[in-house]
Amino acid sequence: MKDFHKIRTKTMKKIISISFLLALSQSAFAANISEDFEKRMLKEYTGQAKIKQKNDSIERNYNSDSGNYFLSSYKQNYLLPFSYSDDYNKKYWDEEGSMKDIESVFQVSVKYPLALDVTPYGGDVYVTYTNKSNWQTFSDGSPFRETNHEPELLVDFGQDWEFGGIQNTNIILGYNYQTNGQSGIEERSWNRLFTDFVFAHKDFSLSARVWLPFSESETEDKEISDYLGYHELNGRYYWNDQTFSAKTRWAFHNNKYGLTLGWEKPLTKAFSMYAEGFYGYGDTLIDFDQKTERISVGFIFTNDLF
Fold it and tell me: What confidence tens digit (pLDDT) does each residue in 81-139 have?
């Protein structure tokens, strides 16, 4: 019983440490911009959907008092202490049967603006970084089973046209590199050029991303697109104080797909309760060709922190 309490205490300390890092990642780094951009930076879609002119976390953080912009969230930032799946790719890890079906999953995702109005049609340049880790917190030694790194360089063209009550808030062009940071037979990485269209209508928002994969070397895995396809749809519906989300990819030519369903309910201004389910291919890069079922519960950090 004492050993159990020690393991539980050790695991909780690790989870608390990750929570602190997620909150710390949302600290501000100031950089001056001219007042000419203030009105444009503060302008946001005011419909009930609360789309804030950015993909996923869709918010451009601007300090109107100091005239500064700074590091902010990009995609979701979350901590899921309990994530269950018995379908992950064990052949690279579990030769001794030491891996557990329950692990912890966390994601840190940030963006930083590099330049504003870079073309006659507007367009703001951002660099982003997303880190998603699968952490075997309940296994001996608590190893990281998989960590996916995903930097992007993108140009965001804010839009304001509307048709039939549907508003196009953003058109985004960019370059994406995703890797698990491994080498040899465990290496998984690919390069993509992408276009992202963001729409909003009342309590609903939709991001439609299409991409063109390409390889820089023979070591890059060219089979990933056969399972992750060439597009992703990410929808969010806001109902009372809850948010329901769905994200899907479908490789039509290979009949492979991935579906993520999420539910959020605010607990404080800083974070919400979050539950997520996944079914299909592409849960992680190491598992891209492994059909996976996963259910996770935990917390998601909100943009209201900024």
Answer: 999 998 777 666 655 667 889 999 999 999 999 998 888 778 999 999 999 999 999 98
C-alpha–C-alpha distance, residues 212 and 180, integer Å? 20
**Cα 207 to Cα 198: distance, rounded to the nearest angstrom:** 4
HSE of 189, CA atoms in CB hemisphere, 13 A: 20
Which tokens in the block code for residue 238? 């806001």
pLDDT in tens, 11-69: 545 554 555 444 444 433 333 334 443 434 333 333 334 444 444 433 444 554 445 66
State the Cα–Cα distance between residues 232 and 194, nearest whole angstrom. Answer: 10
Quote the number of domains for the chain: 1
Which residues are bridge partners to 146 per DSSP? 134
Structure tokens of 7? 């393991």
CATH number at residue 282: 2.40.230.10
- 143 strand-pairing partners: none
Q: Which domain holds residue 136?
A: 2-305
- Report residue 85 CA to chain centroid gap: 20
Q: How many CA atoms lie within 13 A of 95 on its CB side?
A: 1
